[in-house]
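Justification of computing resources. Each target in the renewal requires a structure prediction run like the one illustrated here; the chain below, 409 residues long, is used simply to show the kind of job we budget for.
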Amino acid sequence: MVLLGAMRHAGLAMARSLGRLGVAVYAIDEKAGPVSVSRYCRGMFRWNLNSSPVNDSLAFLLDVARKVGGEPILLPTTDYAALFVVDHAPVLKPAYVFPNQLAETSHALVSKHSMFQLAVRAGIPTPHTFSPQSRHELLAYVERASFPLVLKVDDGGRIFRAEANGRTKCIVSNVDELLKEYDQMQDPEVPNLIVQEYIPGGEDSIWMFNGYFNDQSECLFGMTGQKIRQSPVYTGAACLAVSVQNQVVHQLTLDFMKSVRYRGILDIGYRYDARDGKYKVLDVNPRIGATFRLFLGTNGMDVARALYLNLTGQPVPISLPAPNGRKWIVEDCDLISSCRYYADGKLTLAGYIRSLWGLREFSYLSATDPLPMFSVLASDVAELSSRIWNSIRTIPPGSRDPIAARSSK
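Resulting structure tokens:
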């Protein structure tokens, strides 16, 4: 198994899940990350897929396959990596094994505006989405829209200015705020933002589905869950989540994916709209998601294992979902987000303690694989120290010495 992209906790979780089955796992990423020190990672290959020329990346991937040996399974972990694989499948197929995903479908699902159109055609509830091609079109749209609105980057498979600025999504409450954020996030040469209807509700209104679909678009494994906290807060990925079975969300996903003939691992998000009592699809990731270990069968099955078994010709056993209430956490991200929720008055100390009840899986902490946790701690301490040092350096020299500051008055 070769992981194309080894994001901090996600890549580590994949290596641990598959490695514990005896699968040889290798990782490709520009940074080493915690997976590189995991006992379940056989090797790390350093490469920046996003910034490298396509032909160079293809040559590198083919070379990795030769070094690993056999025909390893290639598992992309980001939208960009997933689209790279489907777009260059004819070149990669002789060296790797991966699902026969349809390039057109994958691109349409990654693009939030195209996904909106697919959902409407399939009869799947979804918030209204508009893709302005200019500031003029945006102004015309807001004349008939209701605030608040969600401003998002549309195509997660491309490299765009908003990612460089660290912003891919924000909630805006008025026209001035919308235009300000739009001007900061939009690339005028390649318009790539969408405006989406905002669905009110807390994190408990956000639902997720993770599943694996075979070549006939049959779901061999699939489960649902809810976000409890997000990182970044309010608009980010789950950092604390709970397994809760929701048959409505489950069936909506099966119907949607059948209509678009989807194949492979899927990570999809919904929001419950109390105004009309419908679950509405927000985002579709045609790849493995960072929260995949939340969705665990009582037999230990998850989407990574389902993919491995199916692609190696082994049966995927029927899996009963873990009991409702099983929780999963990204330790450092959740601690930071909890501080922000507390500062905003959204979380109390007692509420924080209660929220950890039912915690069954950590992203980094593991008695049988301890080195990644120490690696993350060292990285977090180094980053915190750097931020403190940079903040000190920005303080005017005179203000650092209280005696000097008083004498200057």
